[in-house]
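Predict structure. Chain length: 142.
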Amino acid sequence: MQFPTFRASPEASGKASPEPSRPSSRTYLRSLGAAGAAAVAAVSLTGCGLFGGSWDVKLEVTGAGAADISYSFSGDNDGKTAAGQQLPWSKAQNVGFGFNDLGIKDAPPGTACRIYVDGKLKDEQKEPDDKGIVSCSIHLQN
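Prediction complete.
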């Protein structure tokens, strides 16, 4: 069993108080890491609209038949692909600032894409090109 060691205070020994110590490098690194994490969190949350604007975005594809649909909402760096989707098709999400994209491949004639922001039509393409591709895109910013 170990007993704690007690030392007399500088005042009791008649010695002057030591100089205030500087924070250790470990404390400095912890503070720096916490500040960095807070900065990353703030930037991430801003992209979601928590510290900036946010919008309700609806992606829509109309037409008959089926098509391959690729889409991404603001903050989605990888995007998603839905192969062989029956039309009509739609997805909605509340997003922060950034790009919202919708692309249709192998689209039958008469296929159209639309992007609505807060219920208002912001982009519409009504006819696929000669390769069967039609796309819409909108950039939201504060």
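Summary: The CA atoms of residues 68 and 83 lie 4 Å apart.
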